[in-house]
Predict the structure.
Amino acid sequence: MNEIRIGLFGFGVVGQGIYRVIRRATNAHASIERICVRNLAKPRAVEVDPSLLTDNPDSILDDPDINLVVEVVDDPEASYRFVTEAIRRGIPVVSGSKAMIARHLPELIELQRKHSTALLYDASSCGSIPVIRNLEEYYDNDLLLEVKGILNGSSNYILSRVFDHGEPYDQALTRAQQLGFAESDPSFDIEGFDSLFKLIIITVHALGVYISPERIFTYGISSISDSDIRYAREKSMKIKLVAQVVKVSADRFTMFVMPEFVTPSRYIYSVDDEYNGVVIRGECYDRQFMFGKGAGSLPTASSILSDVMARRHGYRYEYKKMDYVDRPDYTTDVPLKIYMRYPDSDFLQSIPFTRITEHYTSADYNYVIGEIPLSRLIEIRDRLSDKNVFIANFPQFFLDLDD
Amino acid sequence: MNEIRIGLFGFGVVGQGIYRVIRRATNAHASIERICVRNLAKPRAVEVDPSLLTDNPDSILDDPDINLVVEVVDDPEASYRFVTEAIRRGIPVVSGSKAMIARHLPELIELQRKHSTALLYDASSCGSIPVIRNLEEYYDNDLLLEVKGILNGSSNYILSRVFDHGEPYDQALTRAQQLGFAESDPSFDIEGFDSLFKLIIITVHALGVYISPERIFTYGISSISDSDIRYAREKSMKIKLVAQVVKVSADRFTMFVMPEFVTPSRYIYSVDDEYNGVVIRGECYDRQFMFGKGAGSLPTASSILSDVMARRHGYRYEYKKMDYVDRPDYTTDVPLKIYMRYPDSDFLQSIPFTRITEHYTSADYNYVIGEIPLSRLIEIRDRLSDKNVFIANFPQFFLDLDD
């Protein structure tokens, strides 16, 4: 139970939150010894002793007194550099950089093993909700069937404003940015990539399998239109941006990020505004629902604090599920039932639906509901990025192994 | 990472669930070596090799091959005997016996330390929801303000049937017993004691403080009447049996179990049937909501499995918060705002309300809404157990330290 002396990389919204939370947590026995920033001159909302600040990463990495690196840099390349360099020097790291972690996780796991040190990143997925830790430790068994949820607070905030308050989409996006929920590049949130990166990390801790981003179908909410919203409302549903990893048979699983129609009976129906909600489904325990603030300075900082505290007791992820026998294989050969708004019949004919069950056309709004394999959606994903096209998934049960 | 060889005490609903779950969890590397039951001749739903069964506790406790005791005996005295005896012999224990644990926790913590072994009991609180583990590991900091929720599946099932389906109370209770949600002694559930025991265990892991059962105000739902239900319905509220531990100032906390009026905007409003739902509130992260099946054979067994798996990695509770500086003190000197149905004006005059804000009388139904300190409710609790009396709490914020 040693004192934690932190070298902090990044002093933006989250970094400043960490600074405040660590000072408030008197039983944490943790202190921030140095803060590495890109621009020393930049004005900051939180008052901080200027002698703590540095723009030289080595003044953290070379300091033998620093025994934990906390990395919350909003630049995946810099993040990768700082994190791998710290691990190579045997310094444990707590990171919130989901994009970087999702892209490099196999290498980061290998590095941790090689240098016998730890990388914790619960804050990278769902802010204050302890999803990673619970998947790693508590759902550490074969019973898990599905992890599904709303993982991006910013896009969910926008959909809530649009659905519950009738706000125009652009106005809702601007407001999300003003409130600090949205990433600096909003396409990261609204095109589904933020959810995708979290889903990749979750899948490693849920099923012990790493799938790289380009292999996963990811579709966001940027082309949603009033017609789509009206369609959902008339059927008493909401549209939510949902990420899911789900076992489709005893030895196969699939995963994707896509808007989904959500009926009021679903737990995630009531996950509104910037909140995140995750449903963990398994044999025997059925559904567990975890809900909380997924974005924002202090919620993310409190999650970082939990990882910092865990380091006091030497906690590290063991990635036990990666050693399981019979890990399931990734497949995209699964049938989906989707709604698609489309511009004209030429476009419709270019989409390889297996079966169309509903078809609506009018002067300014056309849609079909039909079945299509996920693998085909991946093949045609470029075609679907047209702003006159929007797709959304109807949820289905792939598998329920309960007796 | 050794093989887990389990000696199981108890083979009722939960014990049989454990037997099935352990056999299904192929990556658990765990097996049940012997099962101690009270009556060998009793017929059981699950088919089991008769050579596994014994009615002699020592054939588990004396077996050097057995390296984990799992105890799910429906008899607190026997449970206490088996658990303490196992710990004294240095055998780690996973237990689901909340009544026993809540009564003996300080001694059990001391015993674990003395004999350097572990007692895990996540299944004892909220079945499949990992409340204890998360409070111990993830919310391991000073930010926690409140843990509040529906901890008893059986009483919640009854209230759901009564509220949402208009069923008579007695019929709902019978149905809960038939479905196996209710404990063998139903007063345990409906008088709030099951919730109380869980709350005591939660408080140790939330704030690092043990409070014994008799010091905590506990009021159940057995005297709820149609009038009370109608009152709540007219105000678009439900009545739920809620257990809570909450900080009321920087250095004091209170706790109690009481029916509470719940408005639709509250997370626990939608916790229906046999489900449990827990809200964890803290500085910085605001509210986290965890929801899942709190009762039943397989959900409880899956929680036991999580503890069994944790033992493969040598996990034990460290009770770190008990060593915190400035642990908060327990107080009952807090004002509550309650609803009370009462039989006559003599009775009303005997209740030491500080202030009455609403008063309704009629030929067959009288109620008041008023303020009363929790400490006074404890003093008069015998008087409140009259079947012509029912009280329910209006929730309030005691403290919000967020800035």
In short: The mean pLDDT of chain B is 92. Residues 345 and 366 of chain B are 9 Å apart (CA to CA).
